[in-house]
Amino acid sequence: MEREALLEYIRPRMPEKRYIHTIGVMETAILLAEKYGVDTKKAEIAAILHDMAKYEEVEGMRAIVREQGLDTRLLPWGSEILHGPIAAYRAEFELGIKDEAILNAMRYHTTGRAGMSRLEQIIYIADMIEPNRKFPGVEPLRQIAEEDLQKAMKACIHHSILFLVTAELPIYPLSIECYNDYLGEEL
Ligand code: DGI
Ligand code: FE
Ligand code: FE
Ligand code: FE
């Protein structure tokens, strides 16, 4: 599917601010894909669609988890954790996107996971550092993303875990598995 058609699909599903964020993720992901030799078209598609389920009703998302046999660990969590896996589900069954690499990049864009592909890393990182993101500490993350994809992913997941702990927020198991993976040491 072409960029314009995908953008038209997502636009009515989110507020203007989220749409602008999505454009930022798309542009950042394409630049990172070019830099690191990853398929730019796949990066574009995953980026455009990554937050398309963010504003859906949580009970509807849980129903999909149950009916479609998605990971049952998702069930107690809110839309922050559900929207990636649900976006992947809708991309596959409503838009006919069958490419698992693209679907996984969407599916794991919030939590990360152990053993991420470079496309998954690019979407995770682009989501965090796109130009509209303003949080303290974003600038060093942007700098590292220019230099080394693996190091950038490590820095991003570290930042996320630190943020969650500091805010006393619960941490989804995949986020922890992702963090441990990037420490790169024996457990
Ligand atoms: O959808 P976005 O806002 O663009 O970004 P996102 O999908 O990466 O993250 C959505 C929110 O989820 C953000 O506020 C950070 C939060 N988050 C990420 N990992 C975890 C998490 N929240 C909890 N409770 N646990 C996690 O493991
Ligand atoms: Fe998201
Ligand atoms: Fe993110
Ligand atoms: Fe996002």
Explain what you see.
α4 packs across α5. The chain has one domain: Hypothetical protein af1432. It is an all-alpha fold and 187 residues long. It is 67% helix and 0% strand. The site of one fe (iii) ion has 5 residues, from α2. Keywords: Hydrolase, Iron, Metal-binding, Nucleotide-binding. It holds the Pfam family HD. InterPro entries: Diverse_Catalytic_Enzymes, HD/PDEase_dom, HD_domain, YqeK. Residues 18-132 form the HD domain. It catalyses: P(1),P(4)-bis(5'-adenosyl) tetraphosphate + H2O = 2 ADP + 2 H(+).
Q: What are the main properties of this structure?
A:
single chain, 187 residues, mainly alpha, Hypothetical protein af1432, 10 helices, binds 2'-deoxyguanosine-5'-diphosphate, binds fe (iii) ion
Gross geometry: globular
Please write the string of helix (H) and strand (E) elements.
Answer: HHHHHHHHHH
CATH superfamily: Hypothetical protein af1432
Number of strands: 0
Number of domain units:
1
Beta-strand content estimate: under 5%
Give the ligands present. 2'-deoxyguanosine-5'-diphosphate, fe (iii) ion
Show unreliable segments.
Answer: none
Q: What's the CATH architecture name?
A: Orthogonal Bundle
Helix content: 55-70%
* CATH fold group: Hypothetical protein af1432
Structural class: mainly alpha
The first-level CATH class is given as Mainly Alpha
How far is the N terminus from the C terminus? 42 Å
Count the helices. How many?
Answer: 10
Indicate the radius of gyration in whole angstroms: 16 Å
The largest β sheet comes out as: none
The chain-level mean pLDDT equals 97
